[in-house]
Specification:
This protein is of the alpha/beta class. Helix content is about 25%, strand content about 20%. Strand 5 and strand 6 form a beta hairpin.
Amino acid sequence: MSRIMRFEDIVNNMNDYVFHMLGCGAIGSSAAIQLARMGAENFALYDGDKVEQPNIGVSQYNIKDVGKTKVECLYHHIINITEKRETVDKYFGIFPQVTEWMPMSENNDIVILGFDNMKSRLDAVTHISNHSIKPFAIIDGRMGAEHYQQYVFDKPTVSKYKKTWYSDESGSEESCNMKATSYCSNMAGSFIANTIRKVVTKQPYEVALSFNFPTMTLQKNSCFKY
């Protein structure tokens, strides 16, 4: 039996895409694990950090992962679900300083921004925008302990991205996932996975959304791109 058997009438084409996880911390690890459970098999993992004790409380890592690189640990967690070692690539380093960048085909590459700072996000979008081949979509998930924001760019450009961007200095005290909770990181992964499901099945999706945990309120802006 297939792991997607219970929901294949909802989405069954996840392995047609390559998911570039830029940052494998709270947001990236949660999104990657959920995508793998949904049928995704092709990943490129980018991160230069090692798993530390505090990561266990907010990410998809466990005590045995402490001291090892996040990309190596996430790689093993993914293949324990997919059993597809040959379809997961690992890139050690902070993007875009990472020495390699998996070639993109434009039609089936989806980039997830999961960095813990805004500068790295802008650097990544700038790097990607400077290449002739663009990803199918970029999904930017920004997480604080009690708040989650998400933006989707189907034709990413620096100027378009900067309309939603703010510097680390001018952001809130809970910028990205420097302060985090397990429920926010798991919800972030859920929002990203659900958005990707909508994108790959050509359903209406939220270009921008904001979820506040204390008030349990969701603000969103839906836009149909097809």
